[in-house]
Each structure stands twice: as C-alpha cells, then as structure tokens.
Amino acid sequence: MTDLAALDDGEYTAVVDSIEDGFATVFFERDGEEVGNAVLEADRLPEDGKHADAILTVTVVDGDLDTAQYEPERTTKRSEAAQNRFDRLSKRPPSEDDS
Fold first, then answer.
1. Is there a contact between 60 and 8 (Cβ–Cβ < 8 Å)?
2. What does the pLDDT read at residue 70?
3. In the 8-state DSSP scheme, what is residue 94?
4. Is pTM, for the whole model, over 0.85?
5. Distance between CA atoms of 45 and 56, rounded to whole angstroms?
6. pLDDT single digits (tens) 27-41
7. DSSP at 22
8. CA 99 to CA 91: how far, in whole Å?
9. pLDDT computed for residue 88 by the predictor
C-alpha cells in the first residue's frame, strides 16, 4: 500500500474501495491507470462520497489530500458499466442441447 506522499502533486480520480472503523481505503487513478492507494481517515472525504465505489476528483499537494469532490454521475456510470460487464459475463453460452 502506498500513501499520498508517494503521489505527485496534481489531480486524480479516486475510487473508494471500503470504509471500516473510520478509515477509507482509496485507490488513485490518473489517465485511466491506477497509480497508488492509501488508507485515509474517512472524515477527509466528502459526506456524500463516504461509500464503497464512490468516485471522487481529488487534488494532492505536498503528499496531502488538498481537495476532494464527490462525482455522483461518474459513480453511477461506473457502477452501471460494471454491472453490465458482470451480466454479460454471467450469461452461459448456448449448449449443443439448446439448438
């Protein structure tokens, strides 16, 4: 597990993996690639973004979380895309007996 100090200053997409006992495990992405993760105090996150799979736009400055904004539309779209992938993968191909 990395921490924020390992990330370059700048803007990232953050994905909340889980929140337990007041701490959030968050994965950070830049240009569609995962670049690190960290465990943060959950109260550092926006109130509406304190749930698993929440998408945030965050800014890291000097190894610290400077800003964090919840992205409800991106959260919904990503969740729907994941569900669609799951649904497609869960369908069994027709067997020879089905023809």
1. yes
2. 97
3. P
4. no
5. 9
6. 999 998 999 999 999
7. T
8. 16
9. 75
Q: Under a CB-based contact definition with an 8 Å cutoff, are residues 48 and 62 in contact?
A: no
Strands in 23-30's sheet, in edge-to-edge order, are: 33-41, 23-30, 10-20, 55-61, 64-70
Phi, psi of 41 (to 5 degrees): -65, 130
Q: Are 35 and 15 in contact (CB under 8 A)?
A: no
Q: What is the pLDDT of residue 78?
A: 72
- Residue 85 CA to residue 28 CA, distance in Å, equals 22
Q: How far apart are CA 89 and CA 7, in angstroms?
A: 34
11 forms beta bridges with 59
3-state secondary structure of 26: strand
CB atoms within 10 A of CB 6: 14
Q: Number of helices and strands (H, E) in the chain?
A: 1, 5
Contact (Cβ atoms closer than 8 angstroms) between residue 37 and residue 15: no
pLDDT higher than 70, residue 99: no
